[in-house]
Amino acid sequence: MSQRNVEVHDRVVEAVNAREVPEDVLAPGFRMENRASAATDYTYYGARGWNEWMSDLFESFADGARYAVEEIFAVGDDFVVAAFSVIGRGARSGQPLEFRWAGVTWFRDGKAIRAVGYTSRREALEAVGLLD
């Protein structure tokens, strides 16, 4: 199951870079939460919420910004913990702009059920019980 979760995770990254909603891998009831200082401080629900999240995430960037998984920290039977980034140029300034955060995506039956963005690797690992 762990490898399948990584493959779904990879599919999500491809979808974000194509600015598409990966409806095929979002479970019914999917929700995405972001802690203050992560990408946004809001909770998004379902495919519609995913689209809103992408809009909010990329609004500060000029066209061509890239979303990436920089490192996978941990993989479990029902989760992937990773470091994410968006790198590009500012929409208004044109200057280089980077945004980095850690996150956990939880899975059930090969579909993402929940994703949470955290301000640090430590917080993300704590969320899955790998740190005290």
Count up the domains. Answer: 1
Which structural class should the secondary elements be placed in?
alpha+beta
Shape: globular
Give helix and strand order, one letter per element, not per position: HEEHEEEEH
Strand order of the largest sheet: 2-1-6-5-4-3
What report would you give on this structure?
With 132 residues, this protein is of the alpha+beta class. It has one domain: Nuclear Transport Factor 2, Chain: A, CATH 3.10.450.50. It is 27% helix and 41% strand. The protein has three helices and six strands. It has a six-stranded mixed beta sheet with strand order 2-1-6-5-4-3, with helices on both faces. Strand 3 and strand 4 form a beta hairpin. The chain starts with a helix and ends in a 5-residue tail after the last helix. The model has no long low-confidence stretch (mean pLDDT 92).
Q: What secondary-structure arrangement, pairings included, does this model have?
A:
Layout: H1 2-17, E1 26-34, E2 43-45, H2 46-58, E3 66-75, E4 79-89, E5 96-108, E6 111-118, H3 121-127
Parallel strand pairs: 1-6
Antiparallel strand pairs: 1-2, 3-4, 4-5, 5-6
Question: What attributes characterize this protein structure?
Answer:
single chain, 132 residues, alpha+beta, Nuclear Transport Factor 2, Chain: A, six-stranded mixed sheet, 3 helices, globular
